Amino acid sequence: MTTSTPAAAVRTRVRIPLRFPDGFEVATEAITFHGLVDGAEHVALVLGDPTATPTPLVRLHSECLTGDVFGSARCDCGPQLREATERIAATGGVLLYLRQEGRGIGLYNKLDAYALQDAGLDTYEANLALGLPEDARDYTAAAQMLSALGIAELDLLTNNPDKAQQLRALGLSVSRSVPTGVHTNPSNLRYLHAKVQHTHHTIDLAPVASLVG
Ligand SMILES: Nc1nc2c(ncn2[C@@H]2O[C@H](COP(=O)(O)OP(=O)(O)OP(=O)(O)O)[C@@H](O)[C@H]2O)c(=O)[nH]1
Ligand SMILES: [Zn+2]
């Protein structure tokens, strides 16, 4: 981490057995922190043995109440969370569950943005129309969490180049960006297409290109 980033410290470690609706089960250790710069209640989930490899697999998962909890098909967050949990457990690593709902604009603003998308705007235009940034996420707290866990070098499970870029600028060594699976459905195609076009997410939509309007 850069010298200008304040250090955070582990507050509590507690074991939580996870049981997903599809039957997948895995044990995790949930970790909370003191001293995170943005004051949010971000949580780290340790899966498998992160010390088993010099570059543990890490995912920075931005909170999505609608996708992660309710099963919304408007985005790919729920399936990505499920996928990440299993893949990280297999190799050893950490999932940081970051309280950055709506790319950092909050739940109510995200739902306002959904309403604008239903009126024709894309996911980025909708944020701007609300007078908000396209993407308000800052990963300084994530870098603090990783440093507090003793992780300086990692593989990052993401399709979003900005996440690796920000972590590197914060002094972490991101060995590789490992793409997630492609989780398309009729309700999220336009959203995923906007991510590829606008923010260069590495999502291979070629197999479904003809369906994107
Ligand atoms: N403002 C806004 N936020 C959204 C929208 N759809 C999903 N989100 C939020 O976007 C965040 C997830 O970001 P994504 O752009 O799907 O993916 P990413 O985190 O940038 O990249 P990956 O690491 O590849 O998943 C979550 O916080 C969601 O709540 C939307 O239409 N508008
Ligand atoms: Zn989502």
| Bound ions, cofactors and other small molecules, one mention each | guanosine-5'-triphosphate, zinc ion
| CATH homology superfamily of one domain | GTP cyclohydrolase II
Mean residue pLDDT: 93
According to CATH, the fold-level topology of one domain is Rossmann fold
Radius of gyration (CA) equals: 17 Å
Output the helix-strand order.
EEEEHHEHHHEHEH
Portion in beta strands? 15-25%
Q: Which segments are poorly predicted (pLDDT under 50) over 5 or more consecutive residues?
A: none
Separation of termini?
Answer: 42 Å
Widest sheet: strand order? 1-2-3-5-4-6-7
Give the number of DSSP strands: 7
- Helix percentage: 25-40%
CATH class of one domain, named Alpha Beta
CATH structural architecture of one domain: 3-Layer(aba) Sandwich
The SS-based structural class is alpha/beta
Shape: globular
Biggest sheet details:
7 strands, mixed
Number of helices: 7
